[in-house]
Every structure is written in structure tokens, then in C-alpha cells.
Write a structure and sequence with these properties.
It is built from one helix and five strands; from the N terminus they run βββαββ. The protein is of the alpha+beta class and about 90 residues long. It has one domain. Strands 1, 2, 3, 4 and 5 form a five-stranded antiparallel sheet that branches. It starts with a strand and ends in a 22-residue tail after the last strand.
Length: about 90
């Protein structure tokens, strides 16, 4: 089973996934990245960070090749109204 690594990037940080996760295919890795993105976004909002800030997950294969780059963010109908719970709804990938 292939191993995928999920590196998290913001404008200020780059967090490397040193262990990776064994998953059956890239589609499963994409679903995993969406779940990780939701959790990271919820934590960022809980910490008082802007939900509109640039964030992404870079999915890298075992050879170190980037196979997918997922950008995610949340937007609110009114500034300052996004709650962390709202961010845990099913993801939309862009």
C-alpha cells in the first residue's frame, strides 16, 4: 500500500509530516487531506486566526513527489461570524 505525506502550509508556517500514512490510492489521500484540513482550520479559528487566511496541504508520495496540492479556507457571510463547529461540516475541495 502506498504511503502519502501530508505537509501543512500557511503564509507563516510549513509543517512537515515525517511519518506519512498508508492509504490505498490518491483518492483516499485526498479524502484524508480534506479531513485534516477541516481540523486544522477549526483549530486555527479557535486560536483566533482568520478563517480566510491562506492554508494548504501538500500531498507527497514516498519518492517525495508532490501529487496533490489542496488549498482550503473558510469564509463567513458576515465578518467574524465563523465558528469552529461550522468548519467541521463536509469539506469542499478547490
Amino acid at each position: 500500500m502506498p504511503r502519502f505525506f501530508f505537509h501543512y502550509r500557511t503564509d507563516d508556517d510549513f509543517i512537515i509530516d515525517p511519518l506519512g500514512t498508508e492509504l490505498p490510492d490518491l483518492e483516499a489521500a485526498q479524502e484524508q487531506a480534506a479531513e485534516v484540513g477541516k481540523v486544522m482550520l477549526a483549530k486555527a479559528v479557535e486560536a483566533g486566526e482568520s478563517p480566510q487566511a491562506s492554508r494548504c496541504i501538500e500531498i507527497v508520495d514516498e519518492e517525495g513527489v508532490e501529487v496533490l496540492y489542496i488549498v482550503f479556507w473558510a469564509s463567513a457571510s458576515k465578518p467574524g461570524t465563523v465558528q469552529a463547529e461550522e468548519l467541521l461540516k463536509p469539506p469542499t475541495l478547490h
